Amino acid sequence: MDLIVKQVTKIVFPFMVLYGFYIALHGHLTPGGGFAAGAIIGSAFALLVIAFDEQDVEHKLTVHELIDLKSVAGFFMILIIGKMGYSFRAVLIESQTLFNLWSGGFTIIMNVAGTFMVSSAIVLIIYSIEKEAWKK
Amino acid sequence: MTYFNMIVPVLLAAVFFITITSGRHKHYHLSFALGGVVLSAIFILLDFSKIVSDKIMVYYQLGWKPPLGITFSVDLLNYVVCLLLIFVAVSALAISRTEIRDDKREFYALFMLFLLGLFGAAMTGDIFNLFVFFEIFSIASYALVSYTGRKKAVLSSIKYLIMGSFSTSLILLGIVFVYGSLGTLNMADIASKMALSSTTATILGFGLLISGFMFKAAIAPFHAWKPSVIRDTPLSLGLMFTASGTIIGLYAIFRLVVTVGNLNLSGMLIALSFVTMVLGAVLALQTTNLKKLLAYSAISQTGYVLLAFGLLSYAGFVYHMINLVLIDIILFIVAYVVIKHFGTSDLDKMGGLGVGNPVLFGSALVAVSALAGLPLFNGFSSKLLIYQAGIQVFPIATLIAMLVSVLTLAYSSKMLNMIFFSNRKDSGVVNIDYDLKIIMVTIAVFCVVLGIFQGYFTGLMEIIAGSGLDRELYIKTVLGLI
Amino acid sequence: MKAVQHNSFKDQKVIVIGLLAVFASVLFYSVSGLHVFGVIEKGSVSEQYLLEGSNLTGSTNIVNSIVWDLRGFDTMGEEIVFFTAALGVALATRRMVPKKKKKVKVKV
Q1: Which domain holds residue A131?
Q2: Could you count the other beta carbons within 10 Å of the beta carbon of residue B247?
Q3: Complex ipTM
Q4: Tens of pLDDT along B105-114?
Q5: Given C58, C61, C80, which is nearest A96 (Cβ)?
Q6: Host domain of residue C25
């Protein structure tokens, strides 16, 4: 890609990620949530992958690391969903008031975990396809 | 305290460990996969005393009581399906040990996701959750069909993807209609509301759901994907498709029609089972490709299971489902060993193994005898139940089932003859790995035991099928009304 | 020969359109049996979700409370579907790369 795209990507990228996390953390108050936030963060990384060449990206993020990242998030999610996670829910809700940022009990944790999974899946798909284009 | 709810997290953990292990460590992936399966087996077996005393085990996912949240409910029928899945998974992993050499990481991760989907679908008590788990194993299987990377395999993967997506969308549409008319997704809740407020939409929803599951079980109008898929995948996956995919589809149909819906679909099921049985057997007679023959044979046997269902012989249904899995395991191991020895799956180029391989030949003989329903083998016991039910309800069914049995004997003896005798004198001794040998012989012994102690096992199967028939108990236990 | 083929193709088209019409009419007929849109049905799950959802989960976004908590296990399943699809893409694209050494050893 040309210089303009690269420079704009460098500027926009952190804001996109920040906005994604905003959506994830406000999922229990405003429209959005894990899937939307994951899509936003994922597209930020996808922009990075598309804008820069193989040499620029390869040493920063590899497919294997992305799969690892995703699995870590997934594993995090299982632990929550297993026996221990939801038993804290009653305690959490007790300590919170509705409409505050610190509310939502269990959904806030789930939203963050979902964000990790969705975003890294999108990056993995884009990267796998983009890698084909680099080969040619 | 129940343990069965730990199976999905354990399998997911196995996927996690497989994906974080780098591709350099060649043999770790299989170990993690096997570890996941063994842990699942332990969890299932730990629940044995509980299931015997309680009849139905219930687990509320995330602590939400039904109908609010998602429930896992396991009765004896699910329990048996889970045990069969473990048998299939262990055998498939044993085959894959020497069969899979490249891209182990992706293969085993997808394999475990496939298994996770099957287990989840077997244990869940919520129709949308059932759809989700069906989707998990379907998508894993679409990717796995193209594993070899050959043009044919990719083509059949795409074909399977298109047909499979169509069937999953049918399931989703069915769920929309059921939820829209009854206002709930929990199976027990649907069962309790079914009698009071079912409309045309509910029946249509059930019809769509059942046709979607029939695709997964490869029953007649939806069987077309199976032969080409089995031909192009590695045999370890072929075993997963043939044995576990089929029993999950059949189990889901049983659960929906009998326990949840309490519908009477005998006529339709019998008609479909005739087409499936005859079509599978006739096509198996024609083909000379060993893998395709196994696929057609499995389709034909699925027809038998469906016939037992249609004739309301539920003991026969469970019995033949178990037999189908056991026979398929032996046949696929034999096929793997033979195909590896000859380097081709074309039956015309095989022959002459009968002299130096007593273990292989013996196991194959047991499997083929059981398949054809010869007395003293398990296939006979289950087919006898089907014949008896047929004579009481609908004698033509028995006649057709017997006719297909003759066809089965014809194609299976053709297969046996072409592999072990044919025109060649001696093709040498086949080298079988110890794990495969042990599994093959154990399952063969099971086949004979299930055939000899027929009376005892028939009673057992009646108890197992009876647990799926007891709607009152199911509704009350799952909804917590007791 | 060509004309015959053309005719059979046309016949097939007519059959397909006819089947689709029958299917569509059955669907339209059945839709009348569904619940009325926008009205809370007594005794259904949605009633409980809408009336008690916020208090049960502590989340004021009802959609979020249903998707990520009340039916969170389904959502986890959907995430696994996504994960599976991504792994499948990784497997498929890797396989399409022509290898330098011929190393495909899986015998078919």
Answers
A1: 3-135
A2: 25
A3: 0.86
A4: 889 999 999 9
A5: C58
A6: 1-34
